[in-house]
From TrEMBL, chain A:
GO MF annotations, alphabetized: ATP binding; ATP hydrolysis activity
Keyword ATP-binding annotated: yes
Residue stretches making up the ABC transporter domain: 2-256
Protein name listed in UniProt: Peptide/nickel transport system ATP-binding protein
Example GO biological process: peptide transport
Keywords annotated in UniProt: ATP-binding, Nucleotide-binding, Transport
Lineage top rank: taxon: Bacteria
Keyword Nucleotide-binding: yes
From TrEMBL, chain B:
Stretches assigned to the ABC transporter domain: 8-258
GO biological process, one term: peptide transport
Protein name stated in the entry: Peptide/nickel transport system ATP-binding protein
GO MF annotation list: ATP binding; ATP hydrolysis activity
Membrane topology: Peripheral membrane protein
Subcellular location: Cell membrane
Similarity remark: Belongs to the ABC transporter superfamily.
Originating species: Nonomuraea maritima
Gene Ontology cellular-component terms listed: plasma membrane
Length: 335, 328
């Protein structure tokens, strides 16, 4: 179980001309990912979803709020003390081409973390080889052919599986997959998504999936929670299928409207929502963060910021004064 | 001067790359027609030869690659495979605009966009550079950008979506009427992608272009293209009107590819990954059908004979199994 309360992250930029500027990457985010559960963070580039993922994986610090792993708060701990906790959370990066050392065989890549793990848990060196074979089989690779290969001898899909196998060597409780399928060939993407789902079921690891493609979020498990993040704030949160079927926040609606319609197979939703302008970080922080781009903004939205809560409008949490259901996603054609 | 949208006829095009294992074909015997004023989308995975095919339109395949057979006939230009030197350089930009993958390195990081625009104008002998800048500003404004600001910006000051629009502007500003977009929305998020696709469609209609979009994402093609061509292992396996192909794909690869798209609605288990993996230059079978290793409809004949592309109605499909079914 990993939880976050009011997590804040601010990046300071040193300006040459105008002096220092601050960019609020996260503005008080709450989250809870149960053991064996699944969660997906979605949003545009620059919304803060990757920063949050990196904080959860221990690769980034935070300035405010609290992150707790299995009930232990990370805020007070020294970096050295945090380490054993963050071992439980492993990151899978977007680009399997650059995530693996090209001069090492897969065997060497897996051997290093495994020997460390053997030392930590007091297992004999003989355990390492067996475990290497085991993790490769877990991710659907044939150890006999893969172990002696170099990364360039494998396809993108296979490389991503190796990256996942490497994450599994340290017995993680959670995998953080940041756009883990966006660089994989289309015909193989579902294979990787199915693998993540399978690992949840078989090993009980939880999966945090970070993506801008909402459709892929469905495939790591229908019990997953979806967090829609906009400018460092969660604007809608709830079960994946509920939000996809019935989004009430205009930002979620724009994200879903932007997904290409497979004309011939699908018909577009009746009321697609397009943001009025593109994301601009320098927009004022007053009122609702989405107000400037929102086609439905009212007077109140520019002065007051809505909080994440449940209203009569929808069963999922949303941060909007005027939540409304709109049919935005493409429906299959009626035959 | 108004130019008409040109038609393009690619016939029997083969492009080979020299490797230690001999010359291997990245594109093999591809015939494709781009009707004047249409948007055609080429879909394929990595190694399918789609980008090589696109570069052939400019006769810009770099060594160790070369066009070894076939022709690319463009209205008003003739066969570009036969062009060379100065003639070829003039054709690129003037007649054919090419939009490279934006997030990658297609803009010069040391020069402002405006300076690059002027370079482009000078190298093509444009006399009225002020006019060129005005045209560029109009185009950028048309795409929802502040033209003056963008022209004064360096690449790093622009977001991915803005750079993509700059790429489209540079491809169109010399009044080219054949435009090739290579992965126009890869690495952009969904909302930006939707905006760019809308712009591509609108600019296409307004200026009367013939457009070719190269992508790995069927969704992109579905959104903008009139016609869809699917490439696999250097071969064109199926082509036809986008809606028809999506509604009733015939080639087993097209079917598998469409089934492999994660969807927002419908049964989760219906979507399936294709077994196996796409071939690379070295692993493409030399004889027989390129897709047979991953094909559920594989027959004996597929091992030896490369299926020919057969035209039926408005659709072309290269598959033995589909041809047999048709005769039965």
């Amino acid at each position: 179980m990993i939880t976050g309360t009011g997590v804040v992250k601010t990046y300071k930029q040193r300006g040459k001309v105008l002096g220092a500027r601050e960019v609020q990457a996260l503005r008080g985010v709450d989250f809870a990912i149960p053991k064996g559960g699944a969660a997906s963070f979605i949003g545009e580039s620059g919304c803060g979803k990757t920063t949050l993922g990196r904080i959860i994986a221990g690769l980034e610090t935070y300035d405010g709020g609290e992150v707790a792993i299995d009930g232990v708060s990370m805020t007070e701990l020294k970096p050295k003390q945090r380490q054993p906790h963050f071992r439980k959370i492993q990151m899978i990066h977007q680009d399997p081409y650059s995530a693996l050392n090209p001069t090492r065989t897969i065997h060497q890549t897996l051997y290093a973390p495994l020997s460390l793990r053997a030392k930590q848990t007091g297992r004999p060196a003989s355990w390492i080889e067996g475990r290497a074979t085991e993790v490769l089989s877990l991710v659907g690779l044939d150890p006999a052919t893969v172990l002696s290969r170099y990364p360039h001898q494998l396809s993108g899909g296979m490389r991503q599986r190796v990256v996942i196998a490497r994450a599994l060597t340290v017995d993680p409780e959670m995998l953080v997959a940041d756009e883990a399928v966006s660089m994989i060939d289309v015909s193989l993407r579902l294979g990787i998504l199915a693998l993540l789902k399978d690992l949840r079921e078989r090993l009980g690891v939880s999966v945090l999936f970070i993506t801008h493609d909402v459709a892929t979020a469905r495939y790591i498990g229908d019990d997953g929670e979806l967090y829609v993040i906009y400018r460092g704030q969660v604007v809608e949160r709830g079960p994946v299928d509920t939000i996809i079927a019935d989004p009430v926040h205009p930002y979620t609606q724009s994200l879903l409207s932007a997904i290409p319609v497979l004309h011939g197979l699908e018909q577009p939703g009746e009321h697609p929502v397009m943001p009025l302008e593109s994301l601009n970080e320098s927009q004022s922080d007053e009122g609702c963060l989405f107000a400037r781009r929102c086609p439905f903004r009212a007077e109140r939205c520019t002065t007051e910021r809505p909080l994440l809560r449940i209203t009569e409008a929808a069963p999922q949490e949303h941060a909007c004064f005027y939540p409304e259901r709109r049919s935005v996603i493409a429906r299959p054609m009626e035959v | 001067m108004t130019k008409q949208a040109p038609g393009v006829r690619i016939d029997g095009l083969t492009v080979v790359y020299k490797t230690p294992a001999g010359e291997l074909p990245a594109v093999r015997g591809v015939s494709l027609e781009l009707p004047p004023g249409s948007i055609t989308g080429i879909v394929g995975e990595s190694g399918s030869g789609k980008s090589t095919l696109a570069l052939s339109l400019l006769n810009a395949v770099q060594p160790p690659g070369r066009i070894s057979a076939g022709s690319v006939d463009i209205d008003g230009l003739g066969d570009v495979v036969g062009l060379a030197g100065e003639q070829l350089r003039k054709a690129r930009g003037r007649h054919i605009g090419y939009v490279f993958q934006a997030a990658q390195n297609s803009l010069n990081p040391l020069k402002t966009v405006g300076k690059q625009l002027l370079d482009l104008g000078r190298s093509h002998g444009v006399e009225d550079l002020r006019g060129l800048v005005r045209e560029a500003k109009d185009l950028l404004g048309r795409m929802g950008l502040d033209g003056a600001r963008v022209l004064d910006s360096h690449q790093h000051e622009l977001s991915g979506g803005m750079r993509q629009r700059v790429g489209i502007m540079l491809a169109l500003v010399l009044n080219a009427h054949l435009v090739v977009l290579d992965e126009p929305t890869t690495a952009l998020d969904m909302i930006t992608q939707a905006n760019i696709l809308k712009i591509v469609r609108e600019v296409h209609d307004e200026r009367g272009l013939t457009t070719l979009v190269i992508t790995h994402d069927i969704g992109v093609v579905a959104e903008v293209a009139d016609r869809l061509a699917v490439m696999y292992g250097g071969r064109l396996v199926e082509q036809g009107p986008t809606r028809e192909v999506l509604a009733s794909p015939e080639h087993p690869y097209t079917r598998g590819l469409i089934r492999a798209i994660p969807r927002l609605v419908g049964d989760i288990d219906e979507a399936q990954a294709l077994p196996g993996r796409p071939p690379t230059l070295a692993t493409v079978p030399k004889r027989g059908c390129v897709f047979r290793e991953r094909c559920a409809l594989r027959m004996d004949v597929c091992d030896d004979v490369d299926p020919e592309a057969i035209l039926r109605g408005r659709r072309t499909v290269a598959c033995h199994a589909v041809a047999v079914k048709e005769h039965a």
